[in-house]
Amino acid sequence: MIALSDRFEFLCEIENEAGTAKLARTLAETAEPGALLLLSGELGTGKTTLVKHLAAAFGIDPNAVRSPTFTLVHEYRDGRLPLVHMDVYRLEGPDDFEGIGGYEYLDHNEGLIVIEWGETVLDALDPDWLQLRLELVPEGSEVARRVWATSEGPGGTAWLARLRSRLGENLL
Ligand SMILES: Nc1ncnc2c1ncn2[C@@H]1O[C@H](COP(=O)(O)OP(=O)(O)O)[C@@H](O)[C@H]1O
Ligand SMILES: [Mg+2]
Questions:
Q1: Residue 51: which domain range?
Q2: What is the pTM (predicted TM-score) of this model?
Q3: Is a pLDDT exceeding 60 seen at residue 26?
Q4: Residue 7 within any structural domain of the chain
Q5: Which of 24, 61, 128, 162 is within CB 3.0–4.6 Å of 30 for a Cys-Cys bond?
Q6: Minimum-distance ligand 1 atom for the alpha carbon of 51
């Protein structure tokens, strides 16, 4: 079972995919090398789409970004910062994470690592990360999303503070 932290606080509401792009740009501008971002939320809430826009913000071709559901890890080294994109939905836990080389990537993180369904391997991670949870806005638009955030550790917490202050108003 996936246990979601109850410490999430509202970050912003996204009105459409342009809002997702704006969130991604702000994440890219506020990330420091070695950052770890965990993305949570049901299938179809826009985790992979956010990573595509993050890639674009780093100068990586967003069309190269594919859902890593089958290959589990994709690495993009031609951007402003190296980007590693993982999807650990199918993993049972920390042992499987080792099997996909997860710890190697974390140990050599010179850019940004993004883990979809990161809560699956939370216990395996150094406690220093930013976690975003996406959810469809229950009623109304099919494109609007609400984003909730929590963090752990000094790097993750400082990143969240920078993100909040850069986002300013909460409607993207
Ligand atoms: N505001 C939005 N932000 C992100 N994706 C959106 C938005 N509105 C609609 N979509 C669509 O929703 C789908 C999200 O899928 P995806 O990013 O693969 O989700 P996940 O990785 O969470 O399963 C995509 O088809 C995307 O085009
Ligand atoms: Mg996905």
A1: 32-166
A2: 0.94
A3: yes
A4: no
A5: 162
A6: 17
